[in-house]
Design brief:
Peptidase M15A C-terminal domain-containing protein; two-stranded antiparallel sheet; alpha+beta; elongated; Zn_M74/Hedgehog-like; four-stranded antiparallel beta sheet
């Protein structure tokens, strides 16, 4: 997969991709390993239930990521356009991930599943109507 942020010029978010700088790579890899733990556990627990999650071509449940690392400029843009509640936050630090809730479970169930059953490094959670924010502090 890829990890990138959206470029912002003169207060406008463009579809151009900005790759993370080298200091964020270890944190992005740590996040990826944690998301893989969630995916593995989802497949272990719900793999035989076709009503849970979106599947890849192999029939495995996939985890859809809404947001991961982003530049501080993009974070400020999201804040100013009221798409984020903070102008700083942990996404620009590379330690936060927003995950869409898999089909067939609620966001609260997904949060509890991650927190209580996936052995991740995530220590802080916010539940949204569409998914879960996870980070480690």
């Amino acid at each position: 997969g890829e990890s990138w942020s959206t470029e912002v010029i003169n207060g406008v978010g463009y579809g151009r991709k900005i790759a993370p700088t080298i200091e964020f790579i270890p944190l992005i890899l740590k996040g990826a390993k944690n998301v893989q733990k969630i995916r593995d556990r989802l497949n272990e627990k719900f793999g035989n239930n076709p009503k849970i999650g979106r599947r890849n071509k192999l029939g495995e449940i996939v985890v859809d990521v809404a947001s991961w690392w982003r530049t501080i400029i993009f974070q400020i843009y999201l804040y100013r356009t009221k798409q984020s509640t903070t102008s700083t936050g942990n996404h620009p630090r590379g330690i936060a991930i927003d995950l869409y809730t898999p089909r067939g479970i609620t966001p609260a169930q997904f949060r509890d599943f991650i927190r209580d059953g996936c052995d991740t490094d995530f220590t802080y959670f916010i539940t949204y109507g569409w998914g879960v924010h996870c980070d480690w502090r």
